[in-house]
Amino acid sequence: MHSLTIAQVITDTRHALESVDVRLLLQHVLKVEYAFLLTYPEYELTATQKQSFQQLLQRRIQGVPIAYLIGKRDFYDLTFKVNEAVLIPRPETELLVELALERIPPDRSCRILDLGTGSGAIALTLAKHRPLAQMVAVDVSPAALAVCRENARTLRVDNVNFVTGNWFDELSGERFDLIVSNPPYVARDDLHLQQGDLRFEPQVALAAEDNGLACIQQIIAAAPHHLATMGWLLLEHGHDQAEACRELLQQADFSNMCSHPDLAGIMRVSGGQMRS
Is residue 69 one of the residues assigned to a domain? Predict the structure, then answer.
């Protein structure tokens, strides 16, 4: 087996993969930071490292998301473990976190609920930044909650309670000051589900009936029974669902209804407040 250096890897794969993917795969296989790749381009991969890299390279060429291959993804200011049991955290979801943090007092306790928590990207980020808050993270998938629990241990977040269940089913009688969710909102016949990373992510966490609105409808309808007076509900949704979300919020007698755009200018998060 002939020698292979970092520089040769980058050169040999430049037509097969984006350079950032090659870099991330190399960092993962070599267990080094990006600075190492820049400083030691003549470093020769061992036979084991070369084999591991080539296996990951082929899987990436086949379309497997880079986050699943290296087992992690940065979100907000934290790094989360991810695998095929959870959605890959995306930058547009950081808007939901920012809007939620604006509504969570940093100096006193409050109760927060994250529905469909997955890797815990939303719940754990909020809990980390608001350590006095009491967070409840719900997911119907035990495998997803296992990832969330592991992330909580790694990030040293201890103000989260984990609940296995479908939306509010296991929360009878409980009320919260803030409910957040990034629910499934893609229509089941949307062709994007057969493209890119979405092909490999859990479909139960992506797609919903009623043109993608079924889960959103369910959450909005039930939320008033689980919100404290003046409590807020914030939902991430699809690019064309903001108006429908506000209509549903109005039907559920929310006030102060709003929609907010992500960095691309797409209305991405809508919400409302319980009346006094």
Answer: no
Distance between CA atoms of residues 31 and 254, nearest Å:
50
Q: Say yes or no: 215 and 89 in one domain.
A: yes
Q: In this structure, are 116 and 177 located in the same domain?
A: yes
Beta strands in 170-262 (DSSP E): 176-181, 186-187, 207-208, 227-236, 255-261
Q: Is residue 75 part of a domain?
A: no
> Which regions of the chain does DSSP assign to beta strands (E)?
72-75, 78-81, 111-115, 134-139, 160-164, 176-181, 186-187, 207-208, 227-236, 255-261, 267-273
| Contacts for 246 with CB less than 8 Å, ≥ 6 apart | 257, 258, 259, 270, 272
Nearest to 57 by CA among 16, 27, 6, 20: 16
Q: Which of 242, 193, 234 is nearest to 213 (CA)?
A: 242
Task: Convert the pLDDT of each residue in 190-227 to its tens digit.
Answer: 888 888 888 999 998 999 999 999 999 999 999 999 99
Take residue 84 and report the two structure tokens written for it.
């095929």
User: Any idea which residue has 């470093």 for tokens?
Assistant: 43
Q: What span, in angstroms and rounded, lies between the C-alpha atoms of 209 and 201?
A: 18
Tell me whether residue 1 is in a domain: no
pTM for this model (two decimals): 0.91
Residues 156, 154, 262, 193, CA torsion sign: negative
Kindly give the pairing relationship between strand 176-181 and strand 227-236: parallel
- Tell me the residue range of the domain where 33 lies: 6-62
